[in-house]
Write a structure and sequence with these properties.
This protein is of the alpha+beta class. It has 14 helices and ten strands. Strands 6-7-8-10-9 form a five-stranded antiparallel sheet, with helices on one face. A three-stranded mixed sheet has the order 3-4-5. A two-stranded antiparallel sheet has the order 1-2.
């Protein structure tokens, strides 16, 4: 897969984010869920203060060969000034103006603990060349992220993981060969805490590690990991808490997610890519993009969803082990 093409054109980014229809989840797609923004961002950030002049900004952009920079005051991100702002000042003869008068105050930022998939979606949605990265709790600027940073970070992770995973051929059913029984099934339970965004995604990561250690094929594990992550995020965002149960036998892996949340009034509408009822403050945190249920459906061979308003939601996703994902 050409990573540069995937992250530098809007259409190919959408294709990468929304997952392949034929269930073949790529390693790159998996890593965008696994890696955090802090894993790939640039931490050596060039900044300016609100009191700097646009003349100073011009010199900084020229020397550093960059096209924009965050504006920071008392370690807090207060704006961003770009080469477009500089050009307007040049045209209007206002190069002595202070940065605070010309900077953009309405910002889109990322949190350091967000998964890279959220960054990919924001780049696609807004078309920015870079996004500042801040701490979730205090709002302190800790880095900056570009599409190039994502590409470089993915390549590094691919190199690390390649020899550990992709050169091996897995046969998932082997874990049951030493079990003497007419039927055998493994169960893994994870309790999800609602609104706990600091730990969001930990259950999906834990299940992924468990399945890899048991010897399941990476393609199967990718599908399970993404489906579980999206189910986990739905519980974190919309419910006070819930549970994810993974059941494994020689034929299939079943992911069951249940909560006692508000329920889904219109399941058909909720299944539409991009539709989200997440409150604005949740979307500002980088969550609730409206791709969760549709991504689960694309990863699963079978999905069942039932919900009652005021009582909660139950979701079951089935992924067959001996299907085309384990060749």
């Amino acid at each position: 897969m050409d990573l540069s093409a995937a992250l530098n054109t809007k259409d190919s980014t959408k294709e990468d984010v929304q997952l392949a229809q034929d269930k073949e989840i790529t390693k790159v797609q998996e890593l965008t869920y696994e890696l955090k923004v802090k894993d790939v961002m640039t931490t050596d950030v060039v900044t300016v203060s609100p009191k700097d002049s646009m003349n100073n900004v011009r010199e900084i952009l020229r020397i550093k060969r960059i096209s924009g920079t965050p504006v920071v005051q008392d370690n807090q991100l207060v704006g961003i000034v770009s080469i477009e702002d500089l050009i307007r000042c040049l045209v209007d003869g206002e190069m002595d103006a202070s940065v605070e008068k010309k900077m953009t105050r309405k910002l889109e930022a990322l949190h350091a603990d967000e998964p890279v998939i959220h960054a990919v979606r924001k780049f696609d949605r807004y078309g920015f060349g870079r996004l500042p990265v801040i701490e979730r709790d205090q709002g302190k600027l800790v880095g900056i992220l570009t599409k190039g940073d994502i590409i470089e970070g993915l390549f590094k992770k691919l190199q690390i993981d390649y020899h550990e995973e992709e050169i091996h051929r897995y046969r998932a059913s082997h874990i049951f060969e030493d079990i003497v029984a007419d039927k055998a099934r493994l169960h893994f339970q994870y309790n999800i805490v609602g609104q706990d965004f600091n730990r969001a995604g930990e259950s999906a990561s834990a299940l992924k590690k468990t399945l890899l250690r048991l010897g399941f094929h990476p393609q199967i594990v990718r599908r399970v990991a993404i489906a579980t992550y999206e189910a986990e995020m739905n519980i974190v965002i919309f419910a006070n808490g819930g549970q994810i149960l993974a059941s494994v036998d020689p034929e299939r892996i079943e992911i069951e997610a249940s909560d006692a949340g508000p329920g889904i009034p219109d399941i058909e509408q909720a299944m539409q890519p991009g539709f989200s009822t997440a409150p604005e403050w949740v979307q500002e945190l980088g969550f609730g993009a409206g791709m969760g249920l549709s991504n689960i459906q694309k990863c699963a061979d079978k999905m069942d969803l039932t919900s009652q308003v005021g009582k909660g939601t139950d979701l079951k996703a089935t992924i067959y082990i001996k299907g085309r994902g384990n060749r």
